[in-house]
């Protein structure tokens, strides 16, 4: 059946959800909890964050087991990770296939999960899949992953729901268009961030984004730091969390926090 939610404090004003009222209240409570966790954490580690290579140089975009271990050892508990779909329909962690090296040679096309796991990221770092993440989730009960799906987002979420249902609430799903929201919710994901980096100019109209925020229970908006002047004050005034990416400079981080950012994506620990 349908219920009407009237929530004036968190950006949700009216929302119609096909659910019972108890389930809706639980979902809203979980979303507020995730908002608090992210704001208290302050930083989301971008692609797992920097990890040092064998020469001591900090490398970004590894999405590797090494980077997640590094992040967790430093006390960070939220990692944003890039996901690709393997040729046998599993999720693996990489931004681009050519960052994955087999016998020292970068891949030029997708491979199976097992072949991916036999490779090294940039020829040096341990590759990772959903099963790797499940081990981290089991070891760290306060560890969360923000997804960045580089292939079909709905299909990637379907794979998570299929292969890691016991940890579904530890994934914070980024959607790239408002039209993805209902499809992701139907798969069982409650914690959704709307990231703007793939949106069109029309989709980024501030009135449309405010309407979305008022009518969809979600965690918050993520956007490039250079959009902060456009959105940050208005979103803050409407109690909508803003997550800014990617900012490594400490002074810039302080500036955005002072302007009202709830959290910042960063490579730096």
Quick synopsis:
The chain has 269 residues and is an alpha/beta fold. 34% of the residues lie in helices and 25% in strands. The protein is built from nine helices and 17 strands.
Can you walk me through this structure?
- The protein has one domain: Alpha-Beta Barrel (TIM Barrel), CATH 3.20.20.
- The chain contains 9 helices and 17 strands.
- The termini are far apart.
- The protein is α/β, with parallel strands linked by helices and 269 residues long.
- It has an 8-stranded parallel β-barrel, surrounded by 4 helices. The chain has a 4-stranded antiparallel sheet with strand order 9-8-10-11.
CATH class bucket: Alpha Beta
* CATH-scheme architecture: Alpha-Beta Barrel
The CATH superfamily name is Phosphatidylinositol (PI) phosphodiesterase
Shape: globular
How much helical structure, as a percent, in the residues? 25-40%
Q: What's the helix-strand series?
A: EEHEEEHEEEEHEEHEHEHEHEHEHE
Number of helices: 9
Biggest sheet record: 8 strands, parallel, barrel
Which structural category do the helix and sheet elements fall into?
alpha/beta
* N/C terminus separation: 46 Å
Strand tally is 17
What's the pLDDT, averaged over the residues?
93
Low-confidence stretches: 1-20
Give the amount of beta strand, in percent.
15-25%
- Tell me the Rg in angstroms: 18 Å
Name the strands of the widest sheet in spatial order: 3-6-12-13-14-15-16-17
Q: Count structural domains.
A: 1
Under CATH, the topology can be stated as TIM Barrel
């Amino acid at each position: 059946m349908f219920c009407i939610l009237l929530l004036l404090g968190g950006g949700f004003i009216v929302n119609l959800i096909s659910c019972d009222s108890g389930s809706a209240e639980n979902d809203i409570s979980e979303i507020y909890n995730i908002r608090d966790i992210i704001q208290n954490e302050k930083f989301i580690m971008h692609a797992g964050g920097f990890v040092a290579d064998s020469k001591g140089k900090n490398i970004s975009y590894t999405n590797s087991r090494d980077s997640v271990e590094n992040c967790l050892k430093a006390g960070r508990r939220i990692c944003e990770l890039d996901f690709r779909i393997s040729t046998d329909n599993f999720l693996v962690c990489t931004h681009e296939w050519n960052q994955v090296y087999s016998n020292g040679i970068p891949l030029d096309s997708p491979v199976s999960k097992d072949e991916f796991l036999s490779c090294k990221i940039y020829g040096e770092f341990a590759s990772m899949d959903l099963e790797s993440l499940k081990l981290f989730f089991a070891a760290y009960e306060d560890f969360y992953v923000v997804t960045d799906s580089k292939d079909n987002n709905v299909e990637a979420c379907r794979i998570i729901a299929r292969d890691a249902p016991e940890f579904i609430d530890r994934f914070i799903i980024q959607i790239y268009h408002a039209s993805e929201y209902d499809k992701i919710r139907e798969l069982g994901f409650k914690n959704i961030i709307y990231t703007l980096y793939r949106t069109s100019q029309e989709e980024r109209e501030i009135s449309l984004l405010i309407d979305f925020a008022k009518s969809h229970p979600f965690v918050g908006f993520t956007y490039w730091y250079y959009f902060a002047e456009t959105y940050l004050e208005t979103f803050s005034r409407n109690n909508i969390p803003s997550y800014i990416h990617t900012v490594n400079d400490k002074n810039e981080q302080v500036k955005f926090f002072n302007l009202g950012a709830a959290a910042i994506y960063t490579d730096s620990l």
